Amino acid sequence: MRAIHRFGKTVLTLMSVIAVLLSGRELLFAAGRRPPRAVYVKQYEVRVIKVVDGDTVDVAFLGETPPECDGSCQRIRLIGVDTPEYYKKVRQPYADEAKAYTGSCLGTDMLLQLDWDTSYKDRYGRLLAYLYAEDGSMLNYELVRNGYGRYYGKFKFNRQNMASFSQAEEYAREHRLGLWGLEAEGQLPR
Length: 190
What we know:
By secondary structure, the protein is an alpha+beta fold.
């Protein structure tokens, strides 16, 4: 009899918790706000196998792959940064330097993290992601902060990261780092 009573109390408590959660959700919708999406913090081990240009790399997954991958999305577009274009015949100013900086990651193992505030792929099918080095530094951010690329907010991503990328670009501009040193010479690529 005691077990049945305890089971009944447990079910009643569980139902109360569910009711509170659902009513809170309804209050958020009534206030015109949607509940926050789950934070995507899972990181995947990858090895950089090719550098296409400063903001695009090919990776090999060293284990689990993101559910957004269909086997053909090993090309990664670094979110939040836009480096000068690197074409075979014509290169924008500072494209070689940006590619070389990203190239320092070639053959190294890194952690890939998706951003939960954006779509996971761009219109070219590239996976939009952050890449982290073993020391915890984020390649995307370092490219902007060191002047190898601009802050790129076309793909909306984590607001805190957007703010820090914007500040990183201001820092690079103020100190005329990388491509911002070309600004005075009138060579800054668009």
